[in-house]
Design goal:
Layout lengths: L4 H10 L10 H7 L9 H13 L3 H21 L7 H18 L7 H14 L11 H26 L8 H6 L7 H32 L1 H13 L7
């Protein structure tokens, strides 16, 4: 484990070839061999630049209103219910990821993406036995369906991209000077959703607990939020 900027640069940049990540072959098959976290070298650096470009402050600013709408829908769905915070945060993180990756106009695919992703998640740590009825088999089937859905979204985006500017992750991948193939786009879309969901949900769960345990801080955060200028719709 490294903690200083210099050590991180040594591991990730200047001597990255000495620290190659390894994953079981079944994990690469399930998420996609061309996803960013299975790569090294120039291709990895190129993908990182494209991903970071979609999360620059200007791009995030344009997404605030849509993310707030997701948050409000999530809060309203809790009315009168006893909820599991971590599970609810996983759902929220997934919905925000879809907005950040695909933008506002692909919500018609949300439920299909969600069902396929949940099936994939259940099989991720299963024994890699690709026989009908096993978790792994169902996960691989869901992975193919996810790739098919992403391909449809990419095709739809191409048909209208001449008339629209897109600031989401899909737009970043599709507008790259060195164009990514459809398979590369699909692998990285699926990979980014998978990588972000549980870690983000864990952080959000601890934030909720911390605010609940510290009413003074919760009050200060509430006042700060309510005094902030409203964000105009995108």
């Amino acid at each position: 484990m490294v903690s200083s900027p210099e050590a991180a640069r040594f591991v990730l940049v200047t001597r990255a070839h000495l620290f190659k990540p390894t994953f079981p072959a079944s994990k690469e098959r399930m998420l996609g061999r061309q996803a960013v976290f299975f790569q090294q070298g120039d291709y990895h650096a190129r993908l990182r630049r494209l991903i970071l470009r979609a999360f620059l402050p200007e791009a995030i600013r344009r997404s605030v209103a849509r993310i707030e709408a997701v948050a409000l829908r999530t809060l309203h769905s809790w009315d009168g219910r006893l909820v599991n915070t971590f599970q609810e945060m996983k759902t929220y993180a997934f919905n925000v990821a879809i907005v950040s990756i695909f933008g506002k106009d692909e919500l018609s695919y949300l439920e299909d993406l969600k069902q396929c992703y949940y099936t994939l998640e259940k099989g991720y740590n299963s024994m890699p036995i690709n026989l009908p009825g096993t978790l792994f088999f169902r996960a691989m089937k869901a992975r193919k369906e996810l790739a098919h859905i992403v391909a449809k979204i990419v095709c739809s985006r191409r048909l209208r991209r001449a008339n629209e500017a897109n600031n989401d992750l899909l737009g970043s991948f599709m507008e790259a000077k060195e164009a990514l193939s459809d398979d590369q786009i699909a692998d990285n879309m699926i990979g980014v959703i998978f990588a972000a969901r549980d870690t983000t949900a864990s952080v959000l769960t601890w934030i909720v607990k911390y605010l609940g345990d510290n009413p003074g801080i919760l009050q200060a955060v509430t006042v700060r939020h309510l005094s902030s200028p409203s964000i105009p719709p995108p």
